[in-house]
Amino acid sequence: MTTLVDAPAVLEADAFLDVLAARGLGPVVGVPCSFLAPAIRRMEDGADVEYLAAANEGEAVAIAVGARLGGRRPVVVMQNSGLGNAVNPLTSLASTLEVPVLLLVTWRGEPGFPDEPQHRLMGEITPDLLDAMGVRHEILPSDPVVLGERVDDALRHLDATGRPFAFVVRKGTFEKAVPRPPADDDGGAGRPPLRAEVLGAVVDAVGPETVLVATTGYTARELAAGWDRPENLYVVGSMGCASSVALGLATAAPDRRVVVLDGDGAALMRLEALATIGAVQPPNLVHLVLDNGSYESTGGQRTSSAHVDLVGVARACGYGDARSATTPSAVAEAVRGATGTTFVHVPVSPGTDPDLPRPSIQPPDAARRLAAALASEVRP
Fold first, then answer.
1. Where along the sequence do coiled-coil regions lie (predicted)?
2. Are residues 234 and 164 in the same domain?
3. What CA–CA distance (Å, rounded) separates 21 from 63?
């Protein structure tokens, strides 16, 4: 059972990775969290421990099972919100095959530590959820010597039981990482637009009755800060689900245009949503993927979007129109001219207002406000 202790001293990323490397652990595979940003940054920059970015946490567990069967000693990293995605492979894959995996699970929403609304419930139940899955767990120590001893004990547990073990990572365990600066060899000339510039162009292009569904992270925060309206929905949690929420809205309100403002990491996390949208083909749905190639709000870790032809994927899934748009005006034109199920891939540059506020409206209030707007008789 995870026990509460005083907030730990800072664990240096290099010291942490030295513990893993000394025991031959790797690859580290998973989905980033800001709590782990310094360690992931060091691995991305060439540390001795290999890092493999997965699109979602369940995929990471499955990769780790395969790596373990192949003779490696993998470590799975995830935010505790991602435990929801990992429940099935932990309980019906790793457990069934009795292939143990070592987990690092960050504790967003830990009781007593203020956090965003989407982390409250999972923060409360994280220890109980691990218990329910039969996952032995304890707090990740901040002292490197103690950490090494606890990792050794965890590895003995894996080998003796065939069951997983999780280190729970509390806020402040690692130092806060400075976001990775974007490459800018030409002083900014020719770089993609900022996400906020694209959002402004979209809002200007749509009518007041158009529903805008924004994915979690900076997209929702920027839309709320600059263009809040009753027809906006801010999907502040459930990464990857915004496009599916938009599909439900589009089928339930066929007289309303629905535009989903997605991100590359989010789209990749729930890529199956494109297949369902393409099969249903709602004529009133426009799916924008704002692609900055990173998980920007967790520290700028790289996604795999540079290796994926998202326009080609959308076409293959059955979208009636799939294209790229590289300027705010081109995005606005694509949104205004959409006549069927439309996909638009929009390269954007990382970067946001450092003083960007969080949405002032609480998630339940935003949901109720949108439902009331949809229930009105006003139609385009």
1. none
2. no
3. 19
